[in-house]
Specification:
globular, 171 residues, Aminopeptidase
Length: 171
Amino acid sequence: MLSKIRSPSVSERSLALLGPLRKELVKTLDFDDPFFNYFKEKYPGFKKWFYSDKVQNRECWVHYEKDNKIGALLILKIEDEEIESIPQLPKKKRLKICTFKVKSVGNRIGELFIKYAVKFAINEDVSEIYLTHFTEENDRLVELISEYGFRKVAIRRGEQDIEDVFVKEFL
């Protein structure tokens, strides 16, 4: 039984409205696309992480804008480990939203990505979904994920900043 899921699946009609939404391998993405500038600036180890073999061979979901530049990206990962945070979260099978970014608001791409992640988690029989995030004032991502049942449960101390850990649990 799931708790507080507004819409349990992504419909074909909804996906059709997105236009060029594609499932690809991370290694097919253009790391020089301006879309990645935010990550390069915010996360000192992003380039190393992005080019690691494990990440390069992961599937991702990409929305391309009319100019063939990346407009939205979702990268997921199944984990079965502790989360090093305060408080520390115990080992369990989870879906991690590794990368979730949408450049433009109003197209409902973020909502569809969340719905897809929930559907993926159900299919993979995980007990929860989580993501880490550098929360900012008036943070649209926090507003969006809160609408879908994510709540802040911990923090992670990084090299330069503190990330919040948000979790959506399944019953």
